Amino acid sequence: MTTRFLALDARAPNNRSRELKNQVFVFLAVIANTLGNFLLSVGMHPIQLKPLTSPLGYLHIFANPWIDAGVILLIVWFASQLSLLSWADVSYVLPVTAASYVLTALLGKVFLHEVLSLARWSGVGIISAGVMLVVGTGPRARLGP
Q1: What is the pTM for the complete model shown?
Q2: Measuring CA to CA, which residue among 33, 35, 64, 34 is closest to residue 47?
């Protein structure tokens, strides 16, 4: 029995490091997604984009530093999302990272002066409640290497 308790104690620091890793990647995914989409919106607002026949016509968009920063942050979001999905259940990862929807709505309201109707605020509230419910459960990580 003593070896069993020692084994549990030996794994405790490992569990804490996994939990910290999970929290860091959730934070990174949420912030990168929120800021990436926000910067894309800032960069795209002044552009009068019309459908073009050639994909090359869209390349001029990347001359805008706001759009470039947004794309880079969305690449960071994608990489952190992939990492999270490699060790945690999708039923945990997607609801928890939905916090970015809430933050994006707030950034749009505060900095882009977007009008959010009661229906949108209700949606933000429902998403927030869902995120809080899922965060309380913690990830059920897959076992493996």
Answers
A1: 0.79
A2: 64
